[in-house]
Amino acid sequence: MDYFLTEDQVMIKELVRQIAEEKVVPAREELDEKEEFPWGIMEVIAQSDLFGLFVPEEFGGLGRGSLELCIAVEELSRACLGVATTYAASALGTYPILLFGTDEQKKKYLPDIAAGKRLVAFGLTEANAGSDAAGIQTTAQLDGNEYVINGTKQWITNGGEAEIYTIIAMTDKTKGARGASAFIVEKDTPGFSFGKKEKKMGIRASTTRELVFDNCRIPKENILARPGYGFIIAMKTLDNSRTGVGAQGVGVAQGAFEEAVKFARQRIQFGHPIISFQAVQHMLSDMAIEIEAARALVYAVARYIDSGAKEISKDSAIAKVFATDMAMRVTTNAVQVMGGSGYMREYPVEKMMRDAKILQIYEGTNQIQRNVIGQVLIKEAAKR
Ligand code: COS
Q1: 113, exposed or middle or buried, with CB in 10 Å at 0-12, 13-18, 19+?
Q2: Which numbered atom of ligand 1 lies nearest the CA of 89?
Q3: How far apart are CA 21 and CA 14, in angstroms?
Q4: Partners of residue 148 on adjacent β-strands
């Protein structure tokens, strides 16, 4: 389908597809097997200026928006969701600075981020605060000109590899969500270390680690916006990034679909390629319908965000839910079309199915997305 992308957007799509085909596809199996961080590929992405895609030009980026980021994420995800997650998580960690940073903070951090010199990670989740994001226990106490951070963040994508961390900590535990604040913490700050590296079902090229803060002192000016604004910063960050998770779903589903079609044309049973059987055709048709519907939705929401819309929670949650539930169905059915071959590691679809599962879980489970949608529906109904 033609999405009327501009020449510039088509160029971005083709550039990322080329990187994906030439660098990611040949490496993905080994990265998955060895659970290896894709530094080589990150360097290629950096050389192509893609880390700066959504960063304003005045801070060294390319000044594009959500749609361009979604296109890039989709193309990487088509090849390897682990690599795409690494790239997208850096964008996730950058949003708090982009949306809420002072001019000084932006000047200090964004040029290096845009150049791909420093990766970013976002630290919200803790052992007892997943869906219940306001339940975080990490604290940040003001002491003179410094905040002293104590606590542990769990399951942080790019943990240990990133140089810059945007984290949420409680500055006033008595105030619940309104007592949280957001901070920028640099790697190598004394008192900041990394816990265990997780062993995951999928996206094994991406690194997931604990962030451990033990009397970690950071300058007072590393707070984002103002004390008490951390929960809003986290929610607005997720509002902006969730459409990108939808784009990951579209990409990984597209990759699995293409593998299934290729296989179905070659696999002969009962004297015919299995693609000639209606049962298989219907499965492939359903996959094509769902992928296209999800892509149209993700692009529409990304364009809506790029229009400067303020109320994006519901729409980005809708895009995330639809595209990622779709991705799980499509990757599972790609394995089904390929039968025993699909189940073997020799073909990429078993990895794609393992990888896709995280999309229904991270950046807010799909159950939480439905809560977000529901809450906005109630507010909208009350206004009528
Ligand atoms: N934008 C701006 N403000 C928002 C907001 C948003 N998207 N969502 C909530 N808020 C505000 C609310 O208006 C409320 O403000 P007031 O105190 O002034 O009324 C405050 O934040 C608290 O909101 P709420 O009461 O809805 O918070 P809950 O604790 O009920 O949590 C959910 C809401 C479940 C939506 C939230 O915890 C969430 O998104 N959880 C999932 C977290 C997640 O995605 N984790 C993944 C790990 S990060 S990669």
Answers
A1: buried
A2: 49
A3: 10
A4: 141, 217
